[in-house]
């Protein structure tokens, strides 16, 4: 598999695995990603990234979309954050494509 | 102490099951517990669980597919946004039922397989189910479900861990659980026949370590340790009544599948009280929360916040005291019990006792006599 961060291509079209579900947690008032036997509590931007993981948007498209929304943050930093987040959850089997 | 947030509810819908597995975690006197909760009682319970913060719902048994109201229960669980997992032996499923469960919103299926060897699978399950189960695994995938395959590991199948991993991958499982037998309930009765040797375990663990990176990102391999061979006990259920609850078919709320074996503990039923009240106030659930109940060597042990002193049921079953250090721990004054069990496994003796109604009836009578003494 190699280094997932280095391997992530701008044309990668990640899709959330059918075993993972994004859900709002009423107790902690934030989103969580739920999958068999576990869940990840998410920060504010992660759900915005995951909502675009539909197999249609490319990695580049996701980064562009976030860069338009968070204009105060350097695009390079957004790109690094998105790539590293998606690579990590792909290693856990939570993304397809 | 204040009750923590529960994340997981295991709902044992029924103790009825066509399989007779030698390692079944259902109580040996399951035959006495036939008065199952109604559809309405389960639906209310799921709703209260969601209010408490439960995220994961495991529909288990027995064989949960026995319940005619399974689709309705799933629909209500999903309406409360519970991540709904069906834990099944698979033998009662077919394409039509799977489609129905899919339409109700079931998130995930966990299918038990016994072995890659047909004969041993039959020996362990007590009935012929090997081919049917493989068919069902394929139909589960075809219906579009994410699939976990669970295999309980013991002396009779542990040498086939490489084949079990290959089988899991070939069936398209996203997750493979290789769970060493936990010696409670029926498994405890069959311990001498089921416990692997040290050499078998070392070999199996090496295979798992080697296979994991190859399947990373496609099939997660979860491996549940053989605690008799561990230096320290397992953090049983992540701590007593901490994030995990089990509701048995009759409605009692337990911290795990086995806690009923501990005498003197009272567990409340969702028939009589709300789950919210039970979770906070049940005497049984509060009995071993936190660490104020601990004795030495647990009390002053730096590991106590990690393993919580191990398993309370095992402490009772083996050392006769539910508040004792789990004898599995190498620091336990009763660790000799474990050494003897291991020596017995090395000798390879032991007879088989199947989990069926006849044996349960017999053991129920035995338990009543014991209690009357």
Please characterize this protein's 3D structure.
The complex is a heterodimer of chains A (about 100) and B (about 375). Chain A is built from four helices and five strands. In chain A, helix 3 crosses helix 4 (about 75-90). The relative contact order of chain A is 0.24. Chain A is globular. The model of chain A has no long low-confidence stretch (mean pLDDT about 90). Chain A is of the alpha+beta class and about 100 residues long. In chain A, a hairpin with a 2-residue loop joins strand 3 (about 30-35) and strand 4. By secondary structure, chain B is of the alpha/beta class. Chain B is about 40% helix and about 10% strand. In chain B, strand 3, helix 3 (about 95-105) and strand 4 (about 110) form a beta-alpha-beta unit. The longest helix of chain B has 18 residues, at about 200-215. The radius of gyration of chain B is 20 Å and the shape is globular.
